[in-house]
């Protein structure tokens, strides 16, 4: 029989474990907020902001990427990586063709049209990763609903700390026109673009889905466009907001990429 004293000690241990879990979660979120990607900008993320640190397929952290919050503040260090940990995959796509990347998610399918003539190495990377089922079962870990309007996906860890272990170069950066006096261009609703560390040539596997026109530096490869059904699905996720009402963090309505495929049109 469990005595009242033993029961009190058990409850105390359980309370302590819960407190430790909450402290660890706060530390993790604080660490994520300290690593951001606004090119030539240092930013502070709102509570729950996500980081994109690219890692090898084995899970060893090597380089880092993220998509930005957009509030300039005092300078903060941004992780960089001079060399990729793994080689970029060899070209296996037709550089003159168009491709469709289909993300089957629990919130609806998102079809993304990609033009390999404009972004051959980006399309090739997604073709390679999708064939390896790299994205299958991954969560879209970051939603921003203030300043910029994007849902960020592509991290198999679901934490904003995963990537393929190699970098791909920036492509098609002039597609959205010249930057204005603020150094930014408009990424129209429906655009799909690569996340990066804020440094040139640091794209990995993470990407962001723009659900409302967003002003950003022209530093993120725009490689695709969502179909109408996909854009609506992302808008519906955004309408639910972030966890605990955060404007930059995990979406309140969880999004899981159940399967990703890339096919030539």
UniProtKB/TrEMBL annotation:
Residues 1-24 have a biased composition (Basic and acidic residues). Signal peptide: none annotated. It comes from Streptomyces narbonensis. It is an enzyme of class 5 (isomerase). Residues 108-262 form the PPIase cyclophilin-type domain. Keywords: Isomerase, Membrane, Transmembrane, Transmembrane helix. This is Peptidylprolyl isomerase. The keyword Hydrolase does not apply. Residues 1-32, 61-91, 242-265 are annotated as: Disordered. The keyword Nucleus does not apply. Residues 71-87 have a biased composition (Low complexity). GO terms for molecular function: peptidyl-prolyl cis-trans isomerase activity.
């Amino acid at each position: 029989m469990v005595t009242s004293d033993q029961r009190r000690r058990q409850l105390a241990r359980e309370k302590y474990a819960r407190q430790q879990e909450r402290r660890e979660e706060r530390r993790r979120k604080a660490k994520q907020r300290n690593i951001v990607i606004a090119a030539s900008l240092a930013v502070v993320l709102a509570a729950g902001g996500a980081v994109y640190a690219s890692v090898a397929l084995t899970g060893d952290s090597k380089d880092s990427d993220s998509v930005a919050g957009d509030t300039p503040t005092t300078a903060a260090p941004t992780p960089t990586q001079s060399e990729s940990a793994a080689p970029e995959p060899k070209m296996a796509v037709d550089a003159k063709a168009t491709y469709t990347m289909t993300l089957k998610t629990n919130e609806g399918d998102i079809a993304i049209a990609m033009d390999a003539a404009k972004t051959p190495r980006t399309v090739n990377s997604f073709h390679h990763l999708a064939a390896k089922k790299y994205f299958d079962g991954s969560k879209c870990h970051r939603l921003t609903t203030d300043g910029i309007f994007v849902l960020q996906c592509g991290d198999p860890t679901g934490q904003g700390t995963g990537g393929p272990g190699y970098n791909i170069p920036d492509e098609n950066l002039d597609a959205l026109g010249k930057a204005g006096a603020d150094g930014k261009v408009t990424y129209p609703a429906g655009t799909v673009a690569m996340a990066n560390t804020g440094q040139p040539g640091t794209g990995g596997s993470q990407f962001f889905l723009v659900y409302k026109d967003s002003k950003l530096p022209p530093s993120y490869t725009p490689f695709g466009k969502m179909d109408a059904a996909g854009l609506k699905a992302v808008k519906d996720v955004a309408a639910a907001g972030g966890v605990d009402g955060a404007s930059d963090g995990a979406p309140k309505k969880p999004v899981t990429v159940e399967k990703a495929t890339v096919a030539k049109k």
